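Q: A reviewer asked whether we had any structural model of the full assembly, not just the individual parts. We don't, so I'm hoping you can provide one. Inputs are below.
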Amino acid sequence: MIDHATFVGEAVRRLRAEVPGTAIVAASGGIDSTVAALLAEKALGERARAIFVDHGLLRAGEVERVREYFRASELRFEVVSAADRFFSALDGVVDPEEKRRRIGAAFIRLFEAEAERFGTDRLVQGTIAPDWIESGGALRDTIKTHHNVGGIPADSRLTLVEPLRDLYKDEVRAVARYLGTPVADRQPFPGPGLAVRVIGPVTPDRVRRARVANAIVEEEVERAVAAGQLGRPWQYFAVLLPTRSVGVLGDNRVHGEAVSVRVVESVDAMTATAMAVPRAVLARIAERTTRELSGEVVRVLYDVTDKPPATIEWE
Amino acid sequence: MIDHATFVGEAVRRLRAEVPGTAIVAASGGIDSTVAALLAEKALGERARAIFVDHGLLRAGEVERVREYFRASELRFEVVSAADRFFSALDGVVDPEEKRRRIGAAFIRLFEAEAERFGTDRLVQGTIAPDWIESGGALRDTIKTHHNVGGIPADSRLTLVEPLRDLYKDEVRAVARYLGTPVADRQPFPGPGLAVRVIGPVTPDRVRRARVANAIVEEEVERAVAAGQLGRPWQYFAVLLPTRSVGVLGDNRVHGEAVSVRVVESVDAMTATAMAVPRAVLARIAERTTRELSGEVVRVLYDVTDKPPATIEWE
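A: Here is a predicted structure for the entire assembly that you could use as a starting point for your response.
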């Protein structure tokens, strides 16, 4: 493990070298990009501006939460509302890779416009080592097209600056703690947001269902952790499946979708273990999900697969 | 609860009244139709013939197991091989109700041919009370189109004889035990077989996957029951989902299907509870399924929903 003061000093020096004028920072509210934004703030002061995009695919309360974190961290930031643009970009798209490409392209177009507004061509991103390793570094196959890697087209006016590209997740967490930001212990949240937790078509209605289900999983898991019934997971979330099955609602039958719940332990996201969540906690998640999304979701499944062979997220 | 000797005497009398000549019995190897076949054998002797259809949608080893049960029960029976006919009937069908209609129609055509061969128009079926109650008896909505209810078209030459139509599942089990058949403690298996456990297109390849997954669930659950780690479930099985997700195989990524595992307690199938299967048992099921179906299935989910709001089977 690196020495934090040395790493931060190094990163600040490199950021100043790579950014002669101003820069914008792609800030998702996740730990990686928040650390990148903090380093940019440290290196560039008012020459850096964090841009938080509300793409309509965020978790319940996410915009407010991120505003709070950023204010507490004394970051200079702006919130850009762009839900319509992202839903249009995703209209009719089912293929996971195509979803990521569309979202990546929408992000790039949006950041290009913001960069122009801010008079710069530098985009600071929180890319970390597993992102580019899994995206086809070296001789590996491409595990996943990360929306924040390789998404910059050749003709773009933007130049990427990636201060965390040599770090692994646990190292980023350590740096975050060293910098004293409250996001240090936040669970990872994918850049494409709930879009990768909505398998099949991404519509406002289906994103709403995934949002409700994710909020329930977060609340119940956090309650169980607080009550000492469960260790703190690496990541915990819900995925909306397009598979319909039969349910019973009163005397009527309904055809509803299914929700898959994922709660994993991990050190660096390269491998992960599905946790032994107590039956009572899963029962409460199932009961709340099928009640709060009555008639829309009739079945709740718990993902018992480790990584490998499954990845943590579905897409 | 009825008196078993009285019920059997009554049923034999009614069968003799309703079947003046010969009859065939639709015998799936499940408990309901086996009890119906035993009653027909008792009432009609060699005038009855049980017909077991190998529709290509059976569980691993099912044909051999059913032959053995029927021989042990001293039933007169025939096995009809018809996998090609059923796969043709299901070609391109995805809708669950349409699957059941196609399978029901294929059964009827096959039984009509068998009835003609046996010189009769009487078809004895093991319909029980929840089948017709859930299929739209009284003012209820149709919960499910049971392949063995209402599937006889108006122009058919067949007349249905249903000796168990007033019984619930626990009563059928009791009668089976009274008759001394080894199927008394078998878990229920749906008439349409693995077709309703293959969500989406029913191809020989996908049925093979569902067959492997079901065999693993049965073996591991039975092992856990024998080891005292789990009470005896009402029903336990695997469902193949068409939903693909990302997996990791060595250094490569794969897109595989998912398997949902269902293990429920119930008294009469009208309500059911998802059981608290030990984490180690689920881990073994996940490990074996993703290994024995390597690259085809990358994710295993445990269904934690009770009935209601979900049904026991998915379709």
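A: Points you may want to mention in the reply: Confidence is low (pLDDT under 50) at residues 137-150 of chain A. The two ends of chain A are 31 Å apart (CA to CA).
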